[in-house]
Amino acid sequence: MSKELQYKEIISKLTRFENRRLIAELTVGAQIVFIVSALLFTLFSLVESIFFFESAARTVLFYTWLGVTGGSLVHFILTPLYRRYFVTRSDPLRSAALAGSMFPEVKDDLINAMQLLNLESNRGYSEKLAVAAFDEIYERVKELEFSSAVSFARGKKLLPLTLCVLLLSGSAFGFSSGMREAGGRLINYSSEFLPPQKHSFEVKPGNIEVARDDSVSISVKVSGAPADELNLFIKDESQPDFVKETIKPGKDGLFRFTVPAIKYTIKYYATVEDSRSLSYEITVTDKPIIRAFNLSVTPPAYTGEKPFEQTDNGNIAAIKGTAVAFSLESNKELSAASLEFMQGLSVPLEVNGTTATGRFKVSGDNEYFIKLTDTKGYSNSSPVKYSIRASYDAPPEITMVSPDSNTVLPRSQRQALSLQISDDFGFSGLNLHFRISKSKDKSTVQQKFTAIPVPFNRAVKETSVDYTWSLAQLFLSQGDEVTYYLEVLDNDQVSGPKSAKTREYIVRVPTLEELFAFGEKKQNEIQKELSEVLKEADQLQKEMEKVANELKKDNRELSFDEKEKLEKLIDKYQKLQEKAEQLSQKMEDLQQNLNENNMFSPQTMEKFKELQKMLDQVTNEEMKKLMEKMANNLQNLNRKDAQMNLENMKMDEEQFKQSIERTMNLLKRIQIEQKTDELIKRAQELQEQLNKLQEETKNSNPKNSEQLAKKQDNIKEQLKALEKEMQELRDKMKDLKDMPNDKAADLQKELQKQQNQELSDDAKKNMQQGNMQQAMHNQSQISKNMQKMQQGLQEMQNMMAQANQMQTMADMMKVINDILDLSKQQEALKQKTQNGSPSALMNKEMREQDNIRRNLDKTINKLGELSKKTFAVSPEMAKSLGDAKRMMNKALENMQERRNRDASGDQGKAMASLNEAASLMQDALSQMMQQGGSGQGGMMSLMQQMAQMAGQQMELNQKMQQLMKGNNGNMSQEQMAQMQRLQQQQESIKKSLDEMNKEAKAAGKTKSIPADLNKLSQDMQEVITDMKTGKFNDDLIKKQDKILSKMLDATRSINEKDFEKERESFTGTNIKKDSPGALNLDGKKGKRNYSENIDKALQGGFTKDFEDLTRKYYNIIK
Q1: Both ends of the chain: CA-CA distance in Å?
Q2: Segment among 99-113, 674-688, 770-784, 1095-1109 with least mean pLDDT
Q3: Are residues 238 and 355 in the same domain?
């Protein structure tokens, strides 16, 4: 073992030696301290019990005992401890010397060896000698335990004395209450104590602290001599003297008294005879109260509501999930605070001095109070109860606006959805759930719904959502059904999103048959309602005539019956217009449905759209206002005003009736075009199905022959429907005389001759017999037949369109020519009226004006008949002609009154209106010619060429008449230059005529042209020669008019000849009837009100003279 370890071992032995010595010394010292302290305290208590010292003497005795005890403790306990841990611990040589003295075999050798080992390097001793000395002493002491030499004999000898002192003191205080009391007085040296009395008192509760306004019950137990009564003396801080309360003992011998609602600190004591208790004090302290508190209310973030604060108001009205932060300040330092809810919940608040804070969330209706506890354990009394009224996030609402029922899927495979959603705080999502609920292919039927999100604005609380749902990706077949509903979710982040759903709807993929049946049904309903409206309009017209005749009385004021009849007329007319508006809406809905399903050609749909617009314009907003005004002021109307208003109403009703009639006629024509489109689509659909079925038949096996046979049966049913619809087309065409009925009959015969149903039966039979090749042959034949039928129907469709257009162009040219003739006649009559004297205006001129007016009536009738066949006739044309007629009527009135100047002005205005009507028709005619197209051979091409040349000739005639007007055969150089240009235009027309004649001869169709083109060309050459030679006179104008008349007749005749061999030919007949007022042919009356036009005419609406108006017209047509 190394010297270092040996040295440490000796040091450890010495440490144990010193510790044992300390314990032996402390054992003796502790007993001495106890003996001295116990004997001295017992002695002083004995002296106190005998002499009952004052407080000062007790103080001396107490501190004497305390000083002696303290001194003993320092000497016998603290001094040894200090010596051991602060002296001996740092000097092991001293411990070695003391230990060596206790062992004779060691003596001073241990301390010497330790000294030599520590000081060898500094004293010059031999290192080997020092080590040898240490080794020698180590061998002697390594088996020795120095601590064994320490003896506890002194402590053991002192123990009996200690026990005797303990027994003596314990007996003295344990068995003598006087000693205990004396010891207590000695310890409480500063307090005053009464000397022994005849009675002793045990007073409860003694000295205590209570909260202000608490009641305190005082009980006194009297020991010693019996006592019959006790006096209790009480005084609070506000009283100068004690108040005595005499108390009798209770059954248990105790004297009791209750001090109610203590406000201030009180002192009290009790007396019985000469005996007196000690004085006690009841100290009053305040209970904790709330000085101020604040609530910070934060609604859930998703609600978007702003946080707010409440001060000193604990009532809360908030939505569920609202966070409430609570902070309060008390008058006292708190140990605890909490919110106590009526439903058993307690929310502790965090206390910091006089403040407390906390938070909770509103979960429902509740009540609560605030409980405070101060550091002394007092709680606030009678806390105020506050209420919590929770509002709840209502579930969202969703309403399907459209469709509001089950629907059929348009051919675009896009379903438009329109819905209304609302929620009190907003939304988190909107989903469309759908599944294929029905299909011929059972494998595609779905049991579970698939959800897709619907985009919408989530930042609002109420909105309309329009969504177009594309079902193309579902690859649906005819007859498939898709069930769907929409679900909206609110943004409730407290209880979780709530949802609202629409009911389930079904969108079905319709068959072509169903689509056409639906469209036809709706159109028939509209046609029937139009017919009913027309009948009601006729009846209303009769009633108006009857009331108008009754109003022709001399009385200025209206009778009650007359006002009542006018009121009924107004009501009926308003209802009639309402029906027209409803019909317009139905027509618009149908047009949208047809357009979505792409059921008819664009041309047909465009006509249907125009028809819908025309019906929409039947109602007149200004007339509505007039009717309302008339109804409101009916009681104040005089007879003259009533007659004028009724006349206006009659005129408007006539226009209304004519618009309805025109709509019905045009609808019939459109239905024929739609039926033709339908047949073409049916044939096309059948051809596609047959091709597909033929391919399936080619790749079939015996197992699916029955399935193929069923498909063949379906095709047979469609073929049967095709023949039925073909017959219906023929029936519709028979109602109109200018339709290609022969062509339709030929197509029907061809369809019957094909025997497609029998071919379908043969195909089915061959399939069932396994003869697939023959079945495919049958199918191929039917497919070829359908292709042939498509071509025939398309040819007939083109024929109808072109024929209608050419007929319209020819009729319109004739009307334009008639209007221009009337304009020239009116101009000549105007000159006579203007230049004649009032006395010279005789019946001859009036008859001429009346004849012009009657001829205008015939022209108006022609235009009315034409408007029933085409949309090219506009309301503006009818208005202009109506204005012309009104001016003619006014001119007649002025002529009767011999006011030739006014009559001449009215005639000029009539002529201007005629020219305006001709200009509008010329523009419409030009557009029709441009739309007519080119490259169409045969008679249709010839007819178009003749129509275009007739239009050019008409324009040339108009320019010639304008140029020659008023020149008396003398022309300026500029006029001669213009005449030369007109000559070139006439030569150009003749050249076109010659080329057309040459083309007709080459095609062998000269016999089909009723006009003698060679003679017509010769007439044009004569005109050209006259123009070259300067023969500018009325004969030249007449020749040009004759040429135009022949061209117009030729155009009409070509149109009739064109259908001579292919269909039954019917020509139009003039209808003679009383001339109506200004026609409003398409019902657009907003800016065409008849009464407004009367006012305008009366105010001199045409401010320019005749020459300016006509010049403007000719500038337009240039």
Answers
A1: 141
A2: 1095-1109
A3: no
Token pair for 70: 């303290």
Last residue of a domain, one of 677, 697, 727: 677
Q: Which of 348, 365, 391 is at the close of a domain?
A: 391
Angle at 1020 between CA 1015 and CA 1021, to 5 degrees: 95
Question: What domain range is 639 assigned to?
Answer: 513-677
By the 10 Å C-beta count (0-12 exposed, 13-18 middle, 19+ buried), 208 is classed as exposed
Per-residue pLDDT at 430 exceeds 90: yes
Q: Domain check: are 607 and 626 in the same one?
A: yes
Partnered with residue 355 across adjacent β-strands are 329, 352
Distances (CA, A) of 52 to 173, 195, 224, 237: 16, 7, 20, 32
* Dist CA 717 CA 727 (whole Å): 16
**Joined tokens for residue 50:** 């005998």
Q: What is the rounded CA–CA span in Å between residue 127 and residue 116?
A: 9
Per-residue confidence band for 221, with pLDDT thresholds at 50, 70 and 90: very high
How big is the chain, counted in residues?
1118
For 447-481, what is each residue's pLDDT tens digit?
Answer: 999 999 999 988 889 999 999 999 988 888 878 89
pLDDT digits (tens, 9 = 90+) for 304-352: 889 999 999 999 999 999 999 999 999 989 999 999 998 778 999 999 9
3-class secondary-structure state, position 54: coil
- The answer to whether residue 698 sits within a structural domain is no
Half-sphere exposure of 382 (CA within 13 A, CB side): 2
> Is residue 630 domain-shared with residue 506, that is, in the same domain?
no
Residue-level pLDDT at 9: 74
Cα gap 313→416, rounded to integer Å? 53
Q: Which of 626, 625, 642 is nearest to 634 (CA)?
A: 642
In a domain, 613, yes or no: yes
Residues 841 and 986 in one domain: yes
Q: What is the mean pLDDT of the chain?
A: 79
- Determine the Cα–Cα distance for residues 108 and 503; give it in Å rounded to an integer: 115
pLDDT (0 to 100) of residue 578: 80
Cβ-proximal residues to 587 (8 Å cutoff; 6+ apart), any chain: 526, 611, 612, 615, 616
Residues 410 and 338 in one domain: no
Separation of alpha carbons 862 and 881, rounded Å: 12
Q: Which amino acid is at 1?
A: M
Closest CA to 959 of 1111, 740, 817, 1076: 1111
DSSP 3-state assignment of 19?
helix
- 279/201 same-domain check: yes
Residues 280 and 297 in one domain: no
Report the domain count for the chain: 6
Q: Residue 387's pLDDT band (boundaries 50, 70, 90)? A: very high
pTM over 0.70: no
Report the alpha-carbon angle 236-241-244, nearest 5: 85
| 414-422/462-470 β-pairing | antiparallel
CA distance 285 to 209: 7
295, 281: one domain: no
Query: Which CATH number do you get for residue 310?
Result: 2.60.40.10
**Mean of pLDDT values over 649-678:** 75
Lowest mean pLDDT among 287-291, 808-812, 817-821: 808-812
Q: Give the Cα separation of 330 and 370 in Å (integer).
A: 11
Has residue 1099 got a pLDDT over 80?
Answer: no
- Kindly state the average pLDDT of the residues 951-968: 74
CA–CA separation, 710 vs 900, rounded Å?
Answer: 86
Rg of the chain on CA atoms, in Å: 64
pLDDT reported for residue 740: 80
C-alpha 87/C-alpha 85 separation (Å) is 6
The DSSP bridge pattern shows strands 290-298 and 308-311 to be: antiparallel
Q: Specify which of 90-104, 357-371, 852-866 reaches the highest per-range mean pLDDT.
A: 357-371
Percentage of the chain surpassing pLDDT 70?
A: 80
Asked whether residue 630 is domain-assigned, the answer is yes
Q: What is the CATH number of the domain that holds 634?
A: 1.20.120
Give a yes or no: residue 554 inside a domain: yes
